[in-house]
Amino acid sequence: MRGMTKKELAVGMYEKGIRVETIAELLQTDPSYVANALIERGHAPNYVDLYTSTGPQNRYAALLSGVLRFRDVEAARASVDRINELYQQFEADRDRRGMHQCQVLALIGKNRAEGIGKWREARLFADWLAAHLEVHAPEAPAIQLAMPETESEEERPALRFAA
Asked: Is the pTM of this model over 0.85?
């Protein structure tokens, strides 16, 4: 007779009404591990963080599902290339929502890779994102942040429009 897995224990506790955070404490694991175990088994826990996924929820999520990979630099580069292909498609269609979803996905990729110490992989996502944060409206004025001359805490930077 085999013992119950941590995932099976988590599901059992959740079905008895125990919250994700409490289950994580009891099982000495991360709440995201517990939440993902529940999601895998069809539950929709009231817990979301950077490392949980409830699956595709709109047409963009379905297109971007499974794109993030950062096992190594090559996998991360392939992910960034796919994000870029989709971004260019959305840009050609003037689909701002799709473009935004690509930017969000790149940020998630950067944060997740960074969170597990994959620095070079994180840099690929960050570089792509930085290159795609431009304002697309030609009539949008440039804004410069004017820093005060003194270092006083009471003085705050003022936003000024560039000429």
From this structure: no
User: What does the block give as tokens for 92?
Assistant: 């050609």
CB atoms within 10 A of CB 56: 13
> What's the gap between Cα 31 and its chain centre?
17
Domains in the chain, number: 2
Q: Which domain holds residue 123?
A: 59-131
Residue range 72-108, pLDDT digits in tens = 999 999 999 999 999 999 999 999 999 999 999 999 9
End-to-end, the C-alpha distance of the chain in Å comes to: 76
Residue 153 lies in a domain: no
- What lies within 8 Å, CB to CB, of 137 at 6+ separation is none
